[in-house]
Design brief:
This protein is mainly alpha-helical. The protein has 7 helices and 2 strands. The protein folds into 2 domains: 1-34; 39-110, no CATH class. It has helices at residues 4-9, 19-34, 43-53, 55-58, 65-75, 84-97, 99-105, and strands at residues 41-42, 81-82. The protein has a two-stranded antiparallel ribbon. Helix 3 crosses helix 5. GO terms for molecular function: calcium ion binding; calcium-dependent protein binding; transition metal ion binding. It comes from Thalassarche chlororhynchos (Atlantic yellow-nosed albatross). Residues 62-97 form the EF-hand domain. InterPro entries: EF-hand-dom_pair, EF_hand_dom, S-100_dom, S100_Ca-bd_sub.
């Protein structure tokens, strides 16, 4: 498979894109690389993708009720698949409860 950075570089519209645009494009590419031909992920695939690609944000969250609620919903045996919109909502939800978010907020932005 082609590395994400190379895929990102191939998108002409992002040549002069902002950091935020590139961040969202990266999330879309990571999702698309794992999605089925219909553009969806099974709940098991979603959980696996989060564990491999979003570990820094979910690490240490295991005992939080909201995290357990999200993960247990992914563990349910169901035919329901996750589309990109639901995946992004999931990422935002996990980011908002993450300990890493506080660390990001504390990053110095001036010299």
């Amino acid at each position: 498979s082609i590395p994400i950075a190379k895929q990102l570089a191939s998108i002409k519209a992002l040549g002069k894109g902002s950091d935020l645009e590139k961040a969202f494009a990266t999330a879309a590419l990571v999702y698309n690389n794992s999605a089925d031909p219909e553009g969806k992920l099974s709940k098991a695939e979603t959980k696996s993708l989060l564990q491999t690609q979003f570990w820094g944000f979910i690490q240490g969250q295991e005992n939080k009720p909201k995290y357990q609620e999200i993960i247990s919903a992914l563990d349910e045996e169901s035919e329901n698949k996750i589309d990109f919109e639901d995946f992004m909502i999931l990422l935002v939800s996990l980011t908002l409860m993450s300990d890493l978010l506080q660390e990001i907020k504390n990053v110095k932005t001036t010299k």
